[in-house]
Amino acid sequence: MIRVKQTEGEQMHYRVADAGNPYEAIVASFAMKVAVAELKIEAPKLCFVQNTIKSCADLETREDIIGLARGGGKQIFVRTGLDHKNLVDTIFHECRHAMQFQRGITFNREHRERDARIYALELMTKIGDPPEWRVLEFLTKKLNEKGL
Ligand SMILES: [Zn+2]
User: Which of 24, 43, 106, 139 has its CB 3.0 to 4.6 Å from that of 30, i.e. a possible disulfide?
Assistant: First the structure.
C-alpha cells in the first residue's frame, strides 16, 4: 500500500477505471513487466482506480491510497492521474508487496512497507533513475536488455 494520508477511520471508496490516457496505460504495463521479471513473480492483474462514492465502489480502504496489492498478490490497484515517475514507483512498490504475498513472507506491516519502499527505490536506480519525461524510454531500454 502507498498511503496518501490517514483518514481517521473514514472509509475511502474507489472504482475501477480506465487509464487516464494511453501513455499512462503503456507506462504502467512496461513497469509491470520490468518488476515481474525482476521479482520472478506471477504477473498480478493491474487495475486503475479513481475516487468515487460508496454506492459505486469496487474497493474500500480505511486510508487514502494511491496503490494497493490484494488477493494474495494476484491483483494491484493504482490510481489514475499520477505522473509517470510516481506511477512507476507505485507499481514497483506494489509488485514487491505482491511478491511478499505470493511467497508467504510474514513481515509485520512496518517491515513490509519498508521493504517495498527500498525495493522501489532500488529498481528505479536500476533502470537509470530517469527524469519524468524519459520514464517510458528508460523502461523500454530495460525491457529490450532483458529481451522482453
Ligand atoms: Zn506499501
Answer: 139
